[in-house]
TrEMBL record:
<keyword id="KW-0732">Signal</keyword>
<dbReference type="InterPro" id="IPR011042">
    <property type="entry name" value="6-blade_b-propeller_TolB-like"/>
</dbReference>
<feature type="domain" description="Folate receptor-like">
    <location>
        <begin position="35"/>
        <end position="136"/>
    </location>
</feature>
<keyword id="KW-0964">Secreted</keyword>
<dbReference type="Pfam" id="PF07995">
    <property type="entry name" value="GSDH"/>
</dbReference>
<feature type="signal peptide">
    <location>
        <begin position="1"/>
        <end position="29"/>
    </location>
</feature>
<keyword id="KW-0325">Glycoprotein</keyword>
<dbReference type="GO" id="GO:0005576">
    <property type="term" value="C:extracellular region"/>
</dbReference>
<dbReference type="InterPro" id="IPR011041">
    <property type="entry name" value="Quinoprot_gluc/sorb_DH_b-prop"/>
</dbReference>
<keyword id="KW-1015">Disulfide bond</keyword>
<dbReference type="InterPro" id="IPR018143">
    <property type="entry name" value="Folate_rcpt-like"/>
</dbReference>
<dbReference type="InterPro" id="IPR012938">
    <property type="entry name" value="Glc/Sorbosone_DH"/>
</dbReference>
<comment type="similarity">
    <text>Belongs to the HHIP family.</text>
</comment>
<feature type="domain" description="Glucose/Sorbosone dehydrogenase">
    <location>
        <begin position="201"/>
        <end position="337"/>
    </location>
</feature>
<dbReference type="Pfam" id="PF03024">
    <property type="entry name" value="Folate_rec"/>
</dbReference>
<protein>
    <submittedName>
        <fullName>Uncharacterized protein</fullName>
    </submittedName>
</protein>
Amino acid sequence: MSRAVWHRALLPRCWFLLLLCPWPGGSHPQCLDYKPPFQPLEPLVFCKEYSKFGCCDVEKDDQISQRYYQIMDYFDYSGYLTCGKYIHSILCQECSPYSAHLYDAEDAHTPMRELPGLCGDYCGDFWHQCRYVLSLLTESEAAIGIEDDRERFCAFLELKDPHYCYPNVLASAELNANLGTVRADPEGCLQLCLQEVANGLRNPVAMVHARDGTHRFFVAEQLGYVWAYLANGSRVDRPFLNLTRAVLTSPWAGDERGFLCMALHPRFASVRKAYVYYSVAVKKEERIRVSEFTLSASDVNMLDHSSERTLLEVVEPASNHNGGQLLFGHDGYLYIFIEQATGAGVETLP
């Protein structure tokens, strides 16, 4: 196995949507949850402009719609006509395929914006027409008392990148060409941009992003270590998880047994649980084990090793039939793949 870990810099965790490099500034379509944009299963009703490709399903679209009408209850008919279009457009940018850029979600050194970044001219028009709606759109302390000052108002809302600010991002032919399609070179080969994010590892088998706003990611080694990497790329000295004493491995280079995968709870930022899949020997019987761990109360870069709760054990005697993928589906189930995709088990989370 490779000693370095690479991630797909274009669209992580997705094979059906690939785009060619280069993009301006190395950027790419990405949603606020760090997942790739998609085509909703059903057309959106409120943010219709993102029905073919974007970051919202019908449930999210309905949530945005409800927020819009709650805000519009403060307006009379003339205010509705004047400001409704601005509020609609601003709220719907959560559905944009470039929402991660509009909200600065990709920049590990800045907090994610509460509102999408606007272009300067558009912000000036918004200020002139509807400046006092800002208090209805955000509760940020930085927005208090700036409605009457255009310079401060737009300093708060403006995104300086002319490519990705709203509405310029919609008008860019370069950014919007072939969104949602697979592109290949003349020989039919799909092309990816790769970036090295970790090295010096021994048999890395899994890489998981925290998706909790910290921009951390975790890399698992077959021997049973899981390492935490911070937003600046540095590795935390102590392992996020150390199961080397429990994991079943051998000196044989082709042995597939060992630590196989890890998945974080879909709401890891609040639920703070991780799920791991590894080989183990129980009374001389070889098994695979899926366990739940809870994040340490005193160290966010370490799991509480005493919190292990076994969810599933299956007899697995073959050293060359250990394909251990863990995935959470949109239905909330944890999917456990056993052997060479010949079977799957499902555990419902509490």
